[in-house]
Known about the structure:
Order of helices and strands: HHEHHEEHH
Low-confidence stretches: 96-108
Mean pLDDT: 85
CATH architecture: Orthogonal Bundle
Strand content: 5-15%
Shape: globular
Distance between the termini: 45 Å
Helix content: 55-70%
Structural class: alpha+beta
Number of helices: 6
CATH class: Mainly Alpha
Radius of gyration: 16 Å
Amino acid sequence: MLRQNAATAATILRVLANDRRLMVLCELVQAGERSVSELERACGISQSALSQHLAKMRQHGVVKTRRSAQTVFYSVASADVMALLDTLCRLYGKPHEEPAAHRRRVGE
């Protein structure tokens, strides 16, 4: 069981190991759900490149889709993936101030 879980985690981490996919996923974490055109505007990625990234993430169960008429909406596929992404977005999504104690240790 541990081997299977490790393999699943490794697959998800490989899918996440791309800066553009991480931008898209952080947008989905913040927004909850977005169409391709909304993601294209928010992330500044061409529609063709974005479609390829979304297909890869969907193939590996990182995102899921919902169709409404002609529009396809994307969202994060599971609570487990959402928890991982939430942590990554909090840590790396925006610049943060280093604690003073850490700066002192590094500067010594």
